Amino acid sequence: MNYAEIETFLTAVELKSISAAAKKLYISQGTASHRIQNLEADLEIQLFFRQPGQKQLVLTKSGEEFLSLAKQWKSLYQETHHLKFQQHLTHLSVAGIESVNTFALLPFYKDFALQHPEIKLKLSTYHSNEIYELLNKGAIDLGFTYAYANYPTVQVEALFTEPMVLVTQQTSVLPEVLSLRELDPGKEIYINWGVDFEIWHREQFPSSAEQWITAGNCHMQLSLLDFTDSWAFLPLSVAKQLDPNHYRQVDFIEDPLQKTCYCLTPASLLPDKEAVLGILLEDMKQFLSVRGF
Question: Where does the record place the HTH lysR-type domain (predicted)?
């Protein structure tokens, strides 16, 4: 008794026909019949009634009793082989904040998945504090965020640094170069990019004027930039992904805020996970270097 024989039997039962089962399994009808005969010989029972002119297969009583066992046998066989196969794969669970995952690193994830099919990536997006907590609990293997925090169970390393840039529509009245004091806060689509950004932003706009719209996430901020003459501060990695036919960067004379993206890993790792993380991070650093980060 083997998998091919069990699969042929179950398919024949499902379709009530040996010829239909053979067609579905891409084998000859003779091969399908031979498999079922071998199965009956091994079990020393008759599985189907065989009568002249019979249009559909009908299980014998013994065949009906064996049917449930055959389904269990197939399920156990598949689970066993799945477990065996999984031992040769490495899974990595990676979490990042939205802007890093979706813009800065998404092209890398695509390239890495194609180059390393043996490494199975699980990609998730969370807030910074959630990423630290997930690493602290051992629920993920790797995290990326702009926020720095001290956790005894988490190692934090600077991955890349990028400037915050000013973006507006191509049709905006804003000049190519300006001072931030010339901007109208009433046209800003604002996101809080962290404590350092809040401090820098207050220094540049000391008046009590409030931003026009505060967006909850990066995708929302980009959608709201469709308003006439609206503007926003974005990390350079996000701005690079925008359609140049619709958006443009505006240079400003003040020093831009530099945002650092941090790579977070567990303080202790199993040797196999540590080796795979090393491969991913080495490839990632090369990817970022080529793109000027």
Answer: 1-60
Is there a single domain that holds both residue 235 and residue 280? no
The pLDDT, as a whole number, for residue 117 is 85
In DSSP terms, which residues pair with 92 in a beta bridge?
A: 121
- What's the whole-model pTM score? 0.67
Give CA–CA dist 106/31, Å, rounded. Answer: 48
Q: Which amino acid is at 119?
A: I
Residues 6+ apart with CB under 8 A from 194: 146, 147, 259
Structural domains of the chain, count: 3
Whether the Cβ atoms of residue 135 and residue 157 lie closer than 8 Å to each other: no
pLDDT tens digit string along 204-238?
Answer: 998 766 778 899 889 999 999 989 899 999 999 99
Strands (E), the chain: 90-96, 119-125, 142-145, 154-169, 177-178, 189-190, 213-214, 231-235, 247-252, 258-266
Q: Give the orientation angle of helix 29-43 with respect to helix 3-15, to 10 degrees.
A: 110
229: left (phi over 0), alpha (psi -120 to 50) or beta: left
Asked if 156 and 186 sit in the same domain, the reply is no
Say if CB 174 and CB 250 are below 8 A apart.
Answer: yes
Whichever domain contains 37, its CATH number is 1.10.10.10
Do residues 137 and 175 share a domain? no
**Full residue range of the structural domain in which residue 117 is found:** 90-160+260-291
Residue matched to tokens 């890398």: 108
pLDDT band at 269 (very low <50, low <70, confident <90, very high): confident
In terms of domains, do 75 and 143 share one? no
